[in-house]
Known about the structure:
By secondary structure, this protein is of the alpha+beta class. The chain is 40% helix and 17% strand. It has helices spanning 20-37, 68-82, 86-94, 130-145; strands at 42-47, 52-57, 111-115, 119-126. Strands 2-1-4-3 form a four-stranded antiparallel sheet, sandwiched between helices. Helix 1 (20-37) crosses helix 4 (130-145). The longest helix has 18 residues, at 20-37. The model has no long low-confidence stretch (mean pLDDT 81).
Amino acid sequence: MRGKYHTFPCGYRQIRTVTLAGDWRVIAAAHAEAGHNGWHISVVVVDAGGQLAAFDRFDADDGRIGVSGREGLQKARSAALLRASSGEFNNFINHGRPGFVATPGTPLEGGVPLAAGEVIGAVVVSGAHGANDSQMTQAAAAAVRE
């Protein structure tokens, strides 16, 4: 003991997270899927802790909903922090588990975790609505596994 402070060994753990190159690969996959269908989208990628890693939007005055980027970030946080599709939490709320309203983020369909053996982040595609968002998000998440 030195002075009045005790020292204790510090434990640590390594957290794997998606890289910037991985972020853009995921975003490119989402835009490729959207392009096949003529959809104009925003894509959000967060790290394993739910913090913004990358954001991209279709750069056009196309009448997209103005909150799609902000909404996307919240859905991505839901998927990353809770380690499951953001749409699953919407299902819980609609089927008698209202406590999920208090979970972090936004429990709406469209966000999925990015996994490479463990959750390394999450991706959300927003702007094509519901099942279409999910279709593009699945294509984007597959870019991590390639």
